[in-house]
Specification:
374 residues, alpha+beta, CBS-domain, four-stranded mixed beta sheet, 14 helices, 10 strands, 56% helix, globular
Length: 374
């Protein structure tokens, strides 16, 4: 659901941060929504004991600047929430591949689920706890004397929003934190696959309730969240079944063996002629001793001069051993930019390629054969 976006130049705690393309649309949207409701928010804050004069806050460009500050603060809060997950996951030896900020908030992509029983619940609950602590800190900041009304407005808005973020994420629906806590606890009694199925069923019920409420109250954002929860719950079930299917299997069982390889001297013209009778999405480039150097994708040949060499066209490719664990390789495949892995033997020579299509085909064949080893 989330595509590759723009990677930010800083890495808090070593975690890459990406902005999904949808972020470019949702940031100004949130800034507009907050800015257009400054007077209403000021009245709400007054009912909570924070006296603000709404007149200066709604004059000229001020509400839109406050809206932009609030929107930036909101997504910064989401980033801090996701960093809470990442740092606790690190305690269990789980790496965070990236945190992506997008239309519906943020997602921390871990390279694996924590193996220890109950660890997923600890990693999941870290997010709401982080948001709750941030809310308390911001609420304390509001009490400082001399804080300008505009700053007090933004800080108060973020304090309330972080409290809401913590509570909302505790809903028992995958992929929200509450759903992950629920699944982690159910694993003790039901095992991972069954626990995921039960948690997914509860997620679907939550999605229906959110969708109905969003429809009746004309809240499009809630409708989008409801659809996301429903789709994510189904995806979690599929992933759990796949992990069971991958258990104990090796890369060589799913790879495409003996792919057509070319060397660095090949030209775009030669590659086009090759693709005319042996069409593939990509061609691995190997050294004289058969070690993979990269891949040339068929789409990269479009509009390229015939004399252009494979060395100039090839993209980097990650390698994986043929006897490596298939589950680990699939996670590596999901994070690689090339969309495929070069499969090598113990001497580092190319013996196959592993793509997402290969994995899907293998899962289909395994299901058809009743799980028998191929």
């Amino acid at each position: 659901m989330i595509g590759r976006g723009w990677r930010l130049p800083f890495r808090p705690f070593g975690v890459p941060i990406e902005l999904d393309p949808s972020f470019a649309l949702v940031l100004p949207l949130f800034a507009w929504l907050i800015g257009s409701q400054v007077a209403a928010y000021a009245e709400l804050l007054g009912s909570l004991g924070l006296e603000l004069d709404p007149e200066p806050l709604t004059r000229g460009a001020t509400p839109w600047l406050l809206g932009l500050a609030g929107a930036l603060g909101l997504f910064t809060s989401v980033l801090v929430h996701e960093l809470g997950h990442a740092l606790v996951a690190r305690l269990y030896g789980v790496k965070t591949l990236r945190i992506t900020l997008w239309f519906l908030g943020g997602v921390a992509q871990l390279d694996d689920l924590p193996k220890r029983r109950g660890a997923e619940a600890v990693v999941a609950i870290a997010g709401p706890i982080t948001s709750a602590l941030l809310s308390l800190g911001l609420a304390a900041l509001v009490r400082l004397e001399g804080l300008a009304d505009g700053a007090a407005f933004v800080v108060s808005y973020l304090a309330i929003t972080n409290a809401g973020l913590a509570l909302f994420n505790l809903l028992p629906a995958l992929p929200l934190d509450g759903g992950r806590v629920l699944r982690s606890l159910l694993v003790f009694a039901l095992g991972e696959e069954r626990a995921t199925a039960v948690a997914s069923g509860i997620s679907r019920a939550v999605a229906v309730l959110l969708g109905v409420y969003g429809f009746l109250t004309f809240q499009v954002f809630l409708l989008a969240i409801a659809f996301f929860i429903d789709a994510a719950g189904r995806a979690e079930v599929t992933a759990a079944r796949a992990r069971r299917a991958f258990a104990g299997r090796r890369v060589r069982e799913a790879m495409t063996p003996e792919p057509i390889a070319v060397d660095l001297a090949w030209t775009a013209g030669q590659l086009r002629r090759l693709s005319s009778f042996r069409s593939h999405a990509a061609y691995p480039v190997t050294s004289v001793d058969g070690a993979p150097l990269g891949v040339v994708r068929a789409v990269d040949l479009d509009g390229v001069d015939d004399a252009t060499s494979a060395a100039d066209l090839m993209r980097p490719v990650e390698a994986v051993r043929a006897d490596a664990d298939l589950d680990d390789a699939v996670r590596q495949l999901a994070s690689t930019a090339a969309g495929r892995l070069a499969v090598v033997d113990p001497e580092g020579r190319l013996v196959g390629l592993l793509t997402k299509t290969d994995v899907v085909r293998w899962l289909q064949e395994t299901a058809r054969d009743g799980g028998a080893t191929r």
